[in-house]
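During the no-cost extension, the postdoctoral fellow (Dr. R.K.) reprocessed legacy sequence entries with the updated structure-token encoder. One reprocessed record is reproduced below for audit purposes.
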Amino acid sequence: MTDSDDTNTSKSLSSFLSWFISLLHVLKVLTFKLDLFSFQESFNDKVAMFDQYANKHKDKQSKNPFTSGLNIEKRKFSKEEYGRPQAGSLTDIRGRKATAHILKEVLELCEIIHQEGTPCRDQPEIIAITFGDLFNIYTHISDKCVGLLLRARKQKFVDFEGEVLFQRRDDDVPIYLVKPINEIRQLFNERLKEIAKETSIS
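Re-encoded structure tokens follow.
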């Protein structure tokens, strides 16, 4: 091999190395730009997510009657909305489930009065039982006998004298089931269906 051949080979190798280095440089620049684009996209997503959270929080605070210092116009509440949880919220769903549970307990209390009580002489459709007897029967099921009686009276299912009944003192006070048990069952079943439907929609 002559000196000229060595020189040509050396030049070719040098050219190839220069081209290869240039290619590596181009690839490095492209990789950097792609990383920068990916970072920019990720950063924009995070900013959008933060803005969304901030707007949601601001909207929530605007509905809070106790918020102060934000210069936010207070939301006006209707009489039906005031003091109630936001429709569809977890608090609202828990409240509906609790209402359904109490309705079932009131119905159970009415069922016990119907089964264990005796018809009145003048009005056989009205069933009566003394508070003492009812208390002794129902406390084996629940300790909320008096509270449920008050709720049942508020809904005009039962009636009795006095504001609150106390064990021993009011044992002889009669409790009257003033509506037929079938009507009470129907009313409760309709209300329970409404609550179940509202809860599933929420």
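Strands lie at 118-119, 127-130, 158-159, 174-177. The helical segments are 3-62, 90-116, 131-138, 145-154, 181-201. The remaining legacy entries will be reprocessed before the final report is submitted.
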